[in-house]
Structure formats: structure tokens, C-alpha cells
Amino acid sequence: MSVDLADLVGRPVIIGGGAAGLMTALALAPEPVVLLSKSPLGAEASSMWAQGGLAAAVGGDDNPALHLQDTILAGAGLCDEAAARRIIDAAPAAVERLAQHGVAFDRDASGRWRLGLEAAHSRNRIVHATGDGTGREIMRALIASVRRCPSVTLLEGVEARRLIVADNAIQGVLAVRGEEPLVLATARVVIATGGIGGLFLDSTNPSGCFGQGLALAARAGAVLSDLEFVQFHPTAFDGPSRPLPLLTEAIRGDGAVLIDETGTRFMADEPGAELAPRDVVARAVWRRRAQGHRVFLDAREKPGRDFAARYPVISAFCGMAGIDPAIDPIPVRPAVHYHMGGIAVDAMGRSSVEGLWACGEASRTGLHGANRLASNSLMEAIVCAQWVAGSIAGTAHRAGRAYEPTAIPPASDPSAVRPLLSEALGVLRERGGIAAAIRCLLPLAQAAGAAADPTLVGLMMSVAAHAREESRGAHCRSDCPDTLPVAQPSSLTLSSAIAAAKEIAETDRPSFRSVVS
């Protein structure tokens, strides 16, 4: 890399090369920005793997009010209605904006968007590209736009390890390129690093997505919110590959059903059946498997012979496993898919630390509440990127202080965390299991080894899950099955999480009020 770092002083730094980071960089043009990606663009981005699409009220029988209603219902009382309304109202324009960047969305014979149906949506409002390859197509177009954009300095193979903060304000980014430490002096940073699936054994996310952005923000002193809410996708392919291949919800929207090995359709009598909210379907699949059954997605009748044409990516990996979805049921199981929690941000994406923004899955905007509505996440990333960029552009310029590179923290290794979180923070949870995980995680999080950052994120998630003594949305406590009458978002800083974890480790009797706002 021949870039002189001195030429980059003061430029906004965007950490993360997925849809949120790419769109933020493009929206800031022509202001010069720096985009950090620890791998080649798209190689480890969850956006690339997204099979669903963008939820947007663009159909003739739809409107944003209906979309908002579905979102709030799925969110189980924890959506920020004002934030959700603002984001959803902007969704149709986000689809058009992506099309302007060259995204080839699917259209019907008349040239209108071809709209799909997914769980808990009351209308067909999912805009797809190449059937089940929406994320790949969006990333293709955005990567091409970024590589053409003269205002974006792209640093691939550069990983942010710490944010430099003084007086609760960003001063720079401590990063590494190979074995070489480097400092980017800036007072404006965007975290767009994706989710936390890599902290679990069974996930549909790239294994390299294990909450690095949350660790950066937490160590910088930022407030994190709703970390206990982890969405399990009910239909990951039940096979030996890790991460698990995903079978998009759109297949059920096309009429596929869930059966066990006896052929029993066990969701038939549930409200919404196979298109109930994801948390409901994931628990039903989990319970069926816990009873000793195998679970299958049966697409033999619908979409039947059209399966390969509608879902070429899924058809290909099923074929490699010796399964033809047109004639064979597909084995499925729940797997970690999306994190509703993240860095607490305001309407413009600003965190509690001056000069730090967050966008995409790493942020907590209030849109998703306790249970994300299908295909709202890509939409959120594209919409909010515009507002983050506008906020950055309207922020008074500060260069940030010049620092010499100091000792770089080691590269993170989440392998020690995965079995602990998979056991404690699964589809069903209970107090004793969460407390046991906290006792194991606490010393790792306070150490300085390769497990420290991923363990820190897992610890904060576990503390939040331990404190929420109710079942709400994706957070289901077998020992607290009821939902409290008033919904409260949780709120943690690194210091409050460590203090609560110590109390749990010693007494296992922390107060809910001690860790929530």
C-alpha cells in the first residue's frame, strides 16, 4: 500500500466493508474518506451472504404505515416507534438509490419490482435481486461504485484494533496492517463492522464477524443497548458445514412448509403458521428437535419444480449435499443469524462518544426492538448510511491528535467464547446457565490475550441476558416465561457490565435495574 498516512489526517474513517460501510463512504462523496476493511472487500461481510432482500412499501397494496405496523408487532414492545417510522418511510427511496448504483433488482414482466413475502409481513414487500442472491448483487454494485469513487481511500487488509479517545471524544484509530501498527489521526469514526454470529458455534454469519465493532466501542466508553436480543434463523441447512448455509424465509413465503421426519406439519395450527415471527418459528423448530425429531423444509409442492430457478444459490448447495429440493425435504435447524442489539445511537447514528457513529448491524437504532422483522436489516443499513454521512458532513472538523503507534492488542480469537455462548445464550436460556457462562467469561475478558475482545462482547451480552428476567421476542428465559407489562431497553457500558458480572459471579443475584436504563 503506497498511501501516505499523513495525507489522511482528519478524514472520516469508516471501519467495515459491508453494505453499511460502503454506502456511508459513497454518501459522503465528494468529501474524502478512509474506508478500512480487514479483508478484501466483500470477503467477510454478512451483507454478501444475505439471501433475503430489502423490505420496502413499494407495492400497490402497501404503504409505510402497514410496514411500520408489522415491524412494531414483530419487535415485541421494544421498537422505538419514531425511529422505526422515520427509517421505514425512507425505505422506498433506498431501493431507488441502490438501483441508481447499478443493483439489478428482480422485476416482473411489466418492469415493476418483483416483490416477495417473508415471515410476519402482511404484504409482499421484499425486493430481491437474482432470486436468493440479493446481498451478493448489492455488494457487487456498491464495491464497484466505491472502487470508482475518487473521494474514497480504500485500505484493504487493515484492521482497527482500538479507538483512541480523550475526554470522551475520538482522537484516532489504532490499526494494524500485517504486523505493522499504524495510527489514523481523525476525530470522526464510523463503526460498520456487522454482527456477532462468529461468537457462536452454529451461525449463518461469516466466522470473522464476532462483534469487533462492539468491542471497539465498548473500550472507547460508548453505551451499548439491547445486547441480549439475538435472532436465530429457524431454517439453516442442517449439515456439517460451518457457517451454516441459510434457507431464506422467502421459500416459506412461496408456500414451503416445515415437517418432521414423520411428515407431520407441526406449525400448521400456530398463528401465522410457517410465516409467524422468526422467534416463534425458531423456538418451534428447536423444541421439535429437542423432542428427538429431525426437522425439514418441504418445498416439494411449493415452489416445487420452480425451486432451482427461484433459488439458484440454495439449489446449488443442496445439490452438493445430494438433495433436490423439488423432490426431497431439506433438513434444517435454528442458527444465530442477526443481532438486534448494538451500539446505542441517535437518529443520526451518533453514539455517546463524541465523533463516533455506528451504522448497520453494529448499531442499535430502535428499529428492530426485541425481534427483527425479516429483510428490515439491509434496508436499515442503506437508509441510515445517508443520515450518518449527513451528520458527519455537518460536524465541525477536528483533525484529531497525532499519536505514535503503541503496543497493538493481539488479533482476536473467539474460539474460547463459542461453546460458552452457544450453551448459555441459545434459543432457550435460563439463569443458572447464563451465570455459569459469566463466571467463565469474566477472567478472559479482563485478560490481555487473543480472547479478550470477543469475550468482552460475549460477557456484556450475557450480563444483559441475565438481567432481563422475562421472555420477550428473541430473548426466551425458560425460568422467566412471562413478558413484563412494560418494555424497557437495556443499556450497558463496559464498566457497568464488568461490575455486574463480578456481582453475578459472586452472588448470582444482581438487580435488573442495576444494568438497564
UniProtKB/TrEMBL annotation:
> Which Pfam families has this protein been placed in?
FAD_binding_2, Succ_DH_flav_C
Please name the pathway: Cofactor biosynthesis; NAD(+) biosynthesis; iminoaspartate from L-aspartate (oxidase route): step 1/1
Q: Which domain of life is it from?
A: Bacteria
Question: Where does the FAD-dependent oxidoreductase 2 FAD-binding domain start and stop, copy by copy?
Answer: 13-378
Q: Which residues form the Fumarate reductase/succinate dehydrogenase flavoprotein-like C-terminal domain?
A: 456-482
Signal peptide span: none
EC numbers listed for it are 1.4.3.16
Cofactor(s) needed: FAD
Which reaction does this enzyme catalyse, per its entry? L-aspartate + O2 = iminosuccinate + H2O2
Q: Name one GO molecular function term.
A: L-aspartate oxidase activity
Q: Which InterPro entries match?
A: FAD-dep_OxRdtase_2_FAD-bd, FAD/NAD-bd_sf, Fum_R/Succ_DH_flav-like_C_sf, Fum_Rdtase/Succ_DH_flav-like_C, NadB, Succ_DH/fumarate_Rdtase_cat_sf
Record keywords, A-Z: FAD, Flavoprotein, Oxidoreductase, Pyridine nucleotide biosynthesis
State the family it belongs to. Answer: Belongs to the FAD-dependent oxidoreductase 2 family. NadB subfamily.
Tell me what this protein is called.
L-aspartate oxidase
Q: Please report the organism this UniProt entry assigns to the protein.
A: Bradyrhizobium aeschynomenes
Q: What is the lineage of its organism?
A: Bacteria, Pseudomonadati, Pseudomonadota, Alphaproteobacteria, Hyphomicrobiales
